[in-house]
Write a structure and sequence with these properties.
With 125 residues, the protein is mostly helical. The protein contains three helices and no strands.
Length: 125
Amino acid sequence: MNILGAVGGDDDGDDKEKEEEAERERLEAIREAEERRKEKHRKMEEEREKMRQEIRDKYNIKKKEEVVEPVQEEPNPLMRKKKTPEELAREAEEADEDEFTKLKNTIETQVNELKSQIESKCVMQ
């Protein structure tokens, strides 16, 4: 039995907003905890690598070169790679081409419509 909602009227909208906010906060907390965990493990690996390098230096051992591809993390709009002026110019040119192509297609369809209207009115006998 829900006595609180019975006297005050309809508070369903308020409850849903509170639940949504709580869910957003929970997801944000999970994401932050995951980031802290990743950072902790990254630091631990750096320390291990430092110790390994000291051992390599001590015994004159050469490090094996491994090709490690960078891990793609979820995109963060604030941390994205900045575009070079060349890339920006190329994108602007592509957008212009798109606008030009749209205009060309529009004109072609209008010309074809006019052409069909004229042909329908001027029937040759």
